[in-house]
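Researcher: We're teaching a course module on how sequence relates to structure. For the next exercise, students receive a sequence and then see the predicted structure as tokens, so they can try to spot secondary structure elements on their own. Here is the exercise chain.
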Amino acid sequence: MSIIAKKTGRGTYARRLLLAAVTFAGALVGFGCGPPGIEHRVSRDCAPYDLEVEVDDRAMTVMWKSECDRIISGYNVYISERPIAGADPAVTPGESIEPYNQAVFAGDTDPSDGVEHFVAERLENGVRYYVSVRVVFPDRSLSPPSGEVSTVCGPRREIELATRYSSEQDGFSLGKNMYVRADDLSNDLYFYSKNGRDYLASPDRLGGFLRANRFATLPQCGEFDAVKRYLQQGAYPATADRIAVKPGDWLLIATVEKTHALVKVLGFSGHDQGRRVRLFLAYCPAAGELLF
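Model: And here is the predicted structure for the students to work with:
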């Protein structure tokens, strides 16, 4: 071995240098240190996970987790009216669907909780949106998509209804997202008490020309997320034109247009004509959907 090494020392050393240079150059390209990458190239790791969406009036907050052992530039958030994440990960949505964010989203300002938060506005109520997220790397390549969430924007708010005919705030229009009178043509529900019991009722009880909405008390109680999950197990029929209520009850309202509202009774105050009910409302303006 020593004799051969002496005879071919320079040639062997040169070949080793060349092989090392080629290997190192290949490693640089493999780790993104070579020429600039092609936009929309997909990296098959670092996909965001645990995607959740909270909607509101013409807006949504997209939340996800991300763990990646590579340097990243940020994230692309995709909000589309058609499914986009179920296709082959090698085909990125950027080829046909631009991300909602015009610039790469670097992440929120509170990384300590491990959850990213992105607020999207200027959306349309009643439109079914499909939401997913991808990591963006410095060479502009993308991770595979997160799981995809389907959702519908609509108002989320607390209201307080006065007893029928006792105030200008004795009715509420879900579609207009505003207080109206109990006998207004756009009213969706009103409140009254009788014989020591409290009721929410459909406007058509006040006159056949008013809206004929229907109510149901849900057997599920607890937090909003638990009730939403319960509703996703199947439709729950709302058939009553009035319903007795107590604090903590969750109700489903079905409107004449087949849209739905999820309502929680938060509490009561006052007596007789001064009695009021405080409600949390989540409205889904998409007909036939129970997406809250």
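Model: If you want an answer key for the exercise: DSSP finds three helices and 16 strands in the chain. Confidence is low (pLDDT under 50) at residues 1-40, 87-91.
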